[in-house]
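#onboarding

Welcome to the new folks! Below is a worked example of what a typical request in this channel looks like: someone posts a single protein sequence, and someone else replies with the predicted structure as tokens. Don't worry about understanding the tokens yet, we'll cover that in week two.

Example request:
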Amino acid sequence: MRFKLLFLVVILSACSKPKSFDGIEVLGHAATGLENINSPYHDNTKEAVEYALSMEGCDGIEIDVQLSADGELWLFHNTELELETNTSGCVSNMNYSDLNETHYTTFGKEKLVRLRDLDTNYFKGKKILLDIRHYNECANQVVDQNVLISHLEEIGFIHPVSFNVSCVLGNPNWIDDFQNAGLSVLYSVYSMDEVNQYQSSFPMIEGFVVKNDDFSKADITEIKANNKKVFIFEIRSPKGIRSALKKYPTGVLTDDLRATLIEKY
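Example response:
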């Protein structure tokens, strides 16, 4: 009888134990998350990057980068600067002298920061996703990818020694040029039809970045079965975090880094 009770306890404990999420990478979306009221810093800032990468269990970050008129890459998510900063206009139409004086209208007044000015000591052993904007909405023209690639090479983001870099693209015409330059490419997609299309057209692509609500667990499993990585974004609520983790992607780009790490471990 005692043996039967012990066996029952072991079985119930095994059934109640959640599956391990150990293999899933947790990356901060825009460093500490977009629209995250719990973050002490504005997204895509030097402070946010260092805060996120210093958090135990954080595997890396995704950051948004835009090319300025003088060929520098700046971290910024939106199009119009005036929505969040003390400056009006678009990053793509401005030079260093303009953007170096730009800061967010938050309590901390964090400054806009260039990619080259981030302390890469924080990047060691981490995964860095560069979400690169390909379109200048103020000028209604496509950005010159050759200038952008040349700048990435100049500042040491092509084949870095101590950290891992992938570029998140939204323009298919850029994929070959980035891959030929030695950059790993993840492509933003919104359906399995797009996954199949780009997987066929660009067999060397590293993988895809997808919205949590747009892809099922079966979709994620199928993408990974084809030896492609898949990262899920738009993860904010506890329910959304659990939903994304249970799909077992390569990684999640979370807007609540701390809550996601708690859920994972």
